[in-house]
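Handout, page 2. Input:
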Amino acid sequence: MPQPLASSAPVVPVVRLSQAGFAYGDNAVLRGVDLTVHRGQVVAIMGSSGSGKTTLLRLIGGQLRANAGKVEVAGQDLGGLSRAALYALRRRMGMLFQFGALFTDMSVFDNVAFPLREHTDLPAALIHDLVLMKLQAVGLRGAAGLKPGELSGGMARRVALARAVALDPLLVLYDEPFAGLDPISLGITAQLIRRLNDALGAASVMVTHDVHVSLDLVDYVYFVSGGGIVAHGTPTEIRASNDPYVHQFVHAEADGPVPFHYPAPPLASLLSLPEGDVP
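Output:
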């Protein structure tokens, strides 16, 4: 039997940044960023505090617009979209905020139902069933009637994850999804991120400082420093990297390209002791 012809159409990445930059006034936060994320991938963005990771996540999510270069999601240039078109595209994205950001006056069920009620015209009975299935996926169907204040931190994060994937998004963004979690909750959350991404056939981008858990979870890593991508690669490549910054970050070394000492004049110049007596 003849085999079907293979499609010659190029695969469009879910996320593509081309020489993207962003500045607050004269303060350049990001410059010359190239980044690509495909369907099925979980990609980590790592780097020291203040390096521009969260700004990069906001550019991808459309909360900020690039001052230079291009940011594309699902083949659409975010810089050229109207507000209505951008909002329509963002309905195809899920977001897990740092520490969950659940609505404290709503039940677990209503938190997960919120995006379905806001962005679809589905009947209440179908929303009911979808919410229960999402909660089942994160192991919390039995907590549907509880309020966020009645949950542990790990449980709240799992509810937030169920809400983030309620609309079966094409792209899920995670801002420090492991922050503040105990080791058991951290492991559960990591497994759920991987499992749900694979089940949805989605793309996931996470900003994280948790090196070792993330390297066991993700498909690719981008390191940000000084407003740009300084290194990138698979977890295996990152673990084996001889790049001084990557090595310092992965191995949690106190000194290196990110110095231990804040810039200051020589200590001897500030002390009253004779220079030769300074320890």
